[in-house]
Amino acid sequence: MSAEVNDHEQQRNPELVLADFHNCQQGVLPVGPGARSLTEFFAGIDEKPESAAAAPRVQRGDRDVLNLLARGAMVLHLGPANHCWFTNPSRALRLKSAGTPAADRPLIGMCDSARCPQATRHSCHQPVRAEHAERRT
Ligand code: SF4
């Protein structure tokens, strides 16, 4: 089962990360405790020269950008109301409280996206969050 989940994530994640990257380029920014790290990561990719000798800015194709975004795709996990960028298990709030800070996957079902520095929320999460807010009122 875990291998199937990993395969699915490896196929799905690059496209999701690319969509997040394009959204950022267009000014549709993520929110949440991890938003700043993510936008800085994307900005670094945007600024990377095509090659060491490339002075003029060159428009990259999605394939080139995907290669640069691969690190993000490898650590992305999806929660119902947020993205989890699982770059550092020792920063994962729920793993700390569960006493398993070295785990190789987040406890996404117990995510504390309001406080975890690896959590971001995107426009695609808005309907879930609106529904949640409505149920609470
Ligand atoms: S609390 Fe949420 S965002 Fe943070 S590591 Fe766990 S699942 Fe990921």
The biggest sheet, with number of strands, parallel, antiparallel or mixed sense and barrel status, is: 3 strands, antiparallel
| Strand percent estimate | 5-15%
**Ligands:** iron/sulfur cluster
Secondary-structure element pattern, one letter each:
HHHEEHEH
Order of adjacent strands in the largest pleated sheet: 1-2-3
Fold and architecture overview:
By secondary structure, the chain is mainly alpha-helical. It has one domain. The chain contains five helices and three strands; from the N terminus they run αααββαβα. The chain has a three-stranded antiparallel sheet. α1 packs across α3 (62-75). The site of iron/sulfur cluster has 14 residues, from α4. The site of iron/sulfur cluster (SF4) has 14 residues, from α4.
Could you provide a short overview of the structure?
The chain is mostly helical. It has helices spanning 2-25, 35-47, 62-75, 93-98, 126-136, and strands spanning 76-78, 83-85, 119-120. It contains 5 helices and 3 strands, in the order αααββαβα.
